[in-house]
Write a structure and sequence with these properties.
The chain is an alpha+beta fold. Helices cover 17% and strands 41% of the residues. The chain is built from one helix and five strands; from the N terminus they run E-H-E-E-E-E. It has a five-stranded antiparallel beta sheet. The protein is elongated. The termini are far apart.
């Protein structure tokens, strides 16, 4: 896998907790989706696609919560491309927490994004190449 791109880094706050005092999984999922989408759009632009390509989430294929996240943890959402297709890109999102000088791997996810047009139909992520001749 290529070097990861840190799409988001944030300090977790008390407002993000669940009744158990740890960070609510839905908050982590929301950041995973935002990080993956940000990185997917960046990847499309780096490969020659339009930087304003509309990308939507179509699947959270896999999410594994490995360790809890706590208030005050600095959480990093690192992304890398798993697959880049004609109309879709699948991103791996690795979530790590910095806590008391330690780096803890807390969550892993795989998310699929699709480029869409104004009618929300799938469109190619990259412009068509020159015709074969």
């Amino acid at each position: 896998m290529p070097d990861p791109y840190t799409a988001i880094q944030i300090v977790m706050m008390p407002r993000d907790t669940n009744p158990h005092g740890t960070i609510f999984g839905g908050v982590i999922l929301s950041y995973i989706d935002m990080a993956g989408a940000t990185a997917a759009r960046r990847e499309v632009a780096l490969r020659g696609g339009a930087p304003d390509t509309k990308i939507v989430t179509v699947a959270l294929n896999r999410v594994e919560f490995k360790e809890p996240v706590f208030v005050g943890d600095v959480v990093r959402f690192e992304t890398s491309v798993l697959r880049f297709g004609r109309t879709s890109v699948t991103m791996h999102v690795n979530v790590v927490a910095e806590r008391a000088g330690r780096t803890i791997h807390v969550t892993d996810a795989e998310v699929v994004y699709v480029g869409v047009d104004e009618a929300r139909r799938p469109v190619p992520l990259l412009p068509a190449g020159p015709p074969a001749g």
